[in-house]
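Instructor's aside before we start: the two examples that follow are unrelated to each other. I chose them only because their records fit on one page, so don't look for a connection. First example below.
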Amino acid sequence: MLMMAAAALLPSMAQEVEVVSRQRLLQDVEGPAYYPVLNQTGDRLLFLSENGSLKYYDLTDNVTTTVADGYVAGHDACWGGDGKVYFVTQEVADNHLIYRTGKSFDPLTHKTVQLTEAQHGAVCAVAASRGGALRAPGGNSYQSQGDIGSSAWTEGSRVHITVNGEERVFSPVDSWAGYLWASLSPDGKRVAFFAAGKGIVVIDLRGQILAMPGNYEMPCWYNNDYLVAQNATDDGHQFTSSQIVLLKSDGMWKAELTKPASMAMQPTCGGGKIVYTTIDGLLYEMKINIYE
């Protein structure tokens, strides 16, 4: 029995993570930056400026480009599998209702295209393996082609997954406040999302629960086996701590990548990089090594 117990402890004892580098991005170039989103290859980064405008930063050329000056609804922007940016702008009409419009931006031509008519109600930008989409409950939606490949997004207490053009809808856990932050694994075989009151849920493409790694927010896949997430606390009015954590997707192991006092939040992953911001809007890029 002692030998079996020791063997069970061996994987967790052998697991280690090393922060290889951590560097500040856009220092003395941009003001506060929030809600960063890396593309899959990790060489381009979307972010929102302090006034709500959407920009992207080319990490290779060290150039920043404005995507949209107007307010981006719900901080909702993503990189499509076709290399374009999909995002949603919003404005208040004369009738005092908020209207949202889905758009795309092509970094190669710097052209913006309106993809949906302005509509009252939620519109969600969705990254897909072969392109992108804009989803709206009312039906005024858009997708870049007939089969956009694999994608995942949330709506209320439902997680939507497309597999080879087929849409599947699941509600694997009860959550009165709904689901957020759906993230598709790089191999397209699993989805991680946040369920209010429950934490992160990892499911397969049939909606079966594989793991619940803990009550952390904003999960994103570092690779097919690990997730990066935000671990924040508050007093009901403001954040009291926030850190970035690394989680084994099976829920069996976790590690701190920053300390709680760092006030680090809103992580994004791509190309072996992790980018996050702080409560003051300071962007950092981190690289890690995982030893098993």
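Example two begins here.
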Amino acid sequence: MRFFYLLSFSVLAFTSCVKKKAPAEQAGQSDHGNTVLFEFIDFESVSDGRVDSTKGVAGKICGKLNDQIEYGYGFERQIGKLSSYKSIEEVNINFNCFMDKKTDGDVFVFSVEDTTAKKSIYWEAKGITPEKTGTWSPININFKINKEHLNPAYIIKLYPWNKGKNTYYYDDLSFSFEQAKK
């Protein structure tokens, strides 16, 4: 009997520690099978000054931006370390957002940087505009990637920028790198 309880507890403990994958439609995963790389951040295991424990949508922790935190948690990687990087044509960013008010200064940034020359090769920002304020709303942002920016030595960065100093929260952040449809 003791063995049964020990086994049950071990299975329960293991399954509670495994990072659960969000449903495809919620996490923004591609439904056409052209995903080269997919990353999902639920913030539960993130511990830095850009997270908050008062408003999480699916757990206790979420990302937070305010007048003190200008740049949010995102994605940064050397392009050559992305799987099948030569075939990537776009990146889809999906997350849930909680804002009390919308401002023009709430944007998500896509940048490509040449670390050797220490300069930005490409920079683009798109507005974060939830359908509703005062509640969690889904956000979907898409960036097209020009083939000339796919140098394996370059760094790709994707992150929320709070240039308007608005306070807002974001959670269940996903990045889906897509290749051309075959």
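The radius of gyration is 18 Å.
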